Amino acid sequence: xxxxxxxxVAKALKSRGVDHxxxxxxxxxxxxxxxxxxxxxxxxxxRHEQTAAFAAEGIAxxxxxxxxxxxxxxxxxxxxxxxxxxxxxxxSPITVLGGRAPELRWGSGSLQEIDHLPFVSPLVxxxxxxxxxxxxxxxxxxxxxxxxxxPSGPTFxxxxxxxxFTEAEVEIPALPDTGAAxxxxxxxxxxxxxxxxxxxxxxxxxxxxWGRGEEELRALAEALGIPVFLNGLGRGCLxxxxxxxxxxxxxxxxxxxxxxxxxxxxxxxxxGFGGSFGEETKIVRLDVAPNRLLKNRTxxxxxxxxxxxxxxxxxxxxxxxxxxxxxxxxxxxxxxEKRAAEQEELNExxxxxxxxxxxxxxxxxxxxxxxxxxxxxxxxxYAGRYIETFEPGCWMDPGPFGCLGAGPGQAIGAKVAxxxxxxxxxxxxxxxxxxxxxxxxxxxxxxxxxxVMGNNGIWGLEHHPMQFLYGYSVAAELRxxxxxxxxxxxxxxxxxxxxxxxxxxxxLERAFAxxxxxxxxxxTDPEVAYPRRSNLA
Length: 537
Hints:
Layout: E1 3-4, H1 5-15, E2 20-23, H2 30-39, E3 42-45, H3 49-63, E4 67-71, H4 75-79, H5 81-90, E5 94-100, H6 117-120, E6 127-129, H7 136-148, E7 155-160, H8 161-164, E8 167-168, H9 187-196, E9 200-204, H10 206-210, H11 214-224, E10 228-230, H12 250-256, E11 259-263, E12 282-287, E13 301-304, H13 307-318, H14 325-341, H15 343-346, H16 355-365, E14 371-375, H17 378-386, E15 395-396, H18 406-417, E16 423-428, H19 429-435, H20 438-444, E17 450-455, H21 460-470, H22 484-489, E18 494-498, H23 501-514, E19 518-523
Parallel strand pairs: 2-3, 2-4, 4-5, 5-7, 6-7, 9-10, 9-11, 11-12, 12-13, 14-15, 14-16, 16-17, 17-19, 18-19
Antiparallel strand pairs: 1-8
Helix pairs in contact: 1-2, 1-7, 3-5, 3-18, 9-13, 11-13, 16-17, 16-23
């Protein structure tokens, strides 16, 4: 039976397990909406196209399946560009469907007529315009499959208005046979280094999560007694309370390690471009994709292959002799000393609050499987240090592309994926300005996300460095004590203002107990700056 192109798009989505489509209404997409209604795919409409793409990334991060956004032609697609770029940097599997001006009038100046492919293509694994209705299902399914294939990442398809409203009779392509995963070459050399190491360390990131390698990494670490450090989506792939999970001792461990296994994390600015490791440290790099940061430190062994299969092969080849007891004791001492030194800040009674006090109280109300989404500068930098993650997929942030405004969309995607779990959105007051209207989206769709805002009235990530460099700051001041809690109330959500430390925990408990979208607006001290060596490079 012939069906219009929008229904063919939806059938392709359904065949790949997609049950939510994130979008902002646009006439170029009406036939796709009709198809989704027919196929039982829920439409989650947002207030800005960038959020639709971030929400697709949020559901992808929460499930490790492909998230899908539909953006209308022209400014709809351009509004989503930063989110697509963020997904590229995070290897997040999303597929963005674009509307497009009609093909029959192309070049005549139709509404929102622009060729998306030249500016989208550098940011995605594939970008294609479907000009034949009979190809809609095949091209859509292929884009979804390509986004999911390792190394995962964003893909893009757009559909001219006249093409997607035209009928065709086609079969939906079957899922591709991916075959058995193969470990990387070089296992024996890497395993021998790890087996002989007395001061090994594992540094793992988002590639571990996308590769579904957390159980294999845990088995390897336990077999050889290797301390584990995690960043990005790697957080939670070993529970924060596991005896081999460390955080505060990272500098000591990476500088002092004789062997470092670096799994699924590029040696970019987050690892000092490779300088976070000691000069004598031998590095074994493991990722599904070849090393693209060739200007940075070169690993002694480069394992390029399936992360999960390679970790399992390393575990088997390396044996079970533990040589690391003195090393682990040294790192535990460092970890304990640094945590003890933090207690004063954690318990400060100042008003406005020290941001760290917020994370102390949050730690007492968050469930073990709570999903925490960070969106901000200094406020979220503190969160990265103090929030503990116990399960995979429970920490989200903008990633190395660093696009503020990612948080509300990712929180929406996470809550759609896991409606019965706590989703906590951490917001700086600056970051709120990018996508704060999405509290309207949360209200309309009944998504009980709890936002916790560190409101210090400045762009802290810029204000303090400018003060240090020049003795003044410009373009870094916001309105002090803005009542963002009242703003979200006007959007149908709950708002709570916190001025004193004693008010904080009751406010958090009330917010999570309500089941309603809520913003806890916490006034924090603008004089507090997150200690960092470098902002940009």
